[in-house]
Amino acid sequence: MSHHTELLSRLHDRSAVIGIVGLGYVGLPLAIRFAEVGYRVLGFDIAEDKVAKLNRGESLIEHIPHAAVQAARDAGFEATTDFGRTPQADALILCVPTPLNKYREPDLSFVINTVESLIPHMREGQVMSLESTTYPGTTDEELGPRLETRGLVIGETTFLVYSPEREDPGNANFTTHTIPKVCGGATPACLEVGMALYGQVIDRVVPVSSTRAAELTKLLENIHRAVNIGLVNEMKIVADRMDIDIHEVIAAAATKPFGFVAYQPGPGLGGHCIPIDPFYLTWKAREYGVHTRFIELAGEINSAMPDYVIGKLSGAMNDRQKSIKGSRVLVLGIAYKKNVDDMRESPSVILMEKLRDLGAHVDYSDPHIPTFPPMREHKFDLDSVPLTSDSLKSYDCVLLATDHDRFDYDLIRENAVLIVDSRGKLAAGKDVVKA
Questions:
Q1: Which of 95, 183, 273, 397 is catalytic?
Q2: Closest by alpha carbon to 271, among 354, 335, 227, 225?
Q3: Model confidence band, residue 410 (pLDDT cutoffs 50, 70, 90)
């Protein structure tokens, strides 16, 4: 029996062992899903504390309950830091970060280091799937040759696919298995294996002709969001100058049943995907002599939004004969989007730093993040401030940066001296300034 036939058989009868490499916001839900349908799942991660927590049945992510991790453990899920166990897995699904470096160029070090940790232990008859967002050509140019150094033949003795993650943390309308999943293979046999792998756990798997097409699909999805958010952020500034409520305009436009998708403005872009991924294409397009002007313009507009918010806050304080320097400012919400505990690329943190640099005493309140966590580029030694009538009254300004549903907006409205609202959550009034 060929490696191709045997692997397909093991995937279809769910006797295959699924290896998930990287147990974060993408990898952990996927591991839980594979365990749910009856696969044995082996999770790999380099963080010993994370592995220990998961093996105790504890979740690492707020919107994933401990019970879901414990149920996966009961079904045979195990986490490990030992990459020497790679041969035990029939599938190796890579869910590791792909950030930008300080020059806004792709940093594939997490992907490359992960692959190079796996390859010495790989055997014939495995499939490797990359889920990390990256530029077109990564799977073929970076992963393929490394697999071949092991003496593996892609499409015959090993199989290589690219299937980009699609997660929307905090969105109760979609789960891992209900979000359609794109898959491209390095060869037709690879695509067949990839479709079999994901077809067991995802309701709809969408095949494309190549790994490069799948890689560009993911980038287009995120570029579409980044450009449209840039557009609506620019419209917010125009509407503000014209004394028009942009949120009223968006809600009205959204009643059109075709040709319009509502995007909401905010204080800047956040999350791992939207602020970062478009620049993967910008970087790769240079190789082809193409200048990605839409992407770069949207990036400029979105990057300027924190300064716009600080300007509005400064003006509002000035109207009340106060300077930012020496004032007490409470930032509401430091996650990058509402109802999650994910702070990656959060514009709230940029706002906090800008306020601190201007001499303000800055605190934050976030029901999802009790203590400001260690971050590579940002440092605040703070705990979340409980919202009470007394605590709110003690600040010169309250800045709504992330509009969590768990905030008591009536309490905030009744007790804050000044509210600067960057999310359009509150009706305008003498103590509420839209930003």
A1: 273
A2: 335
A3: very high
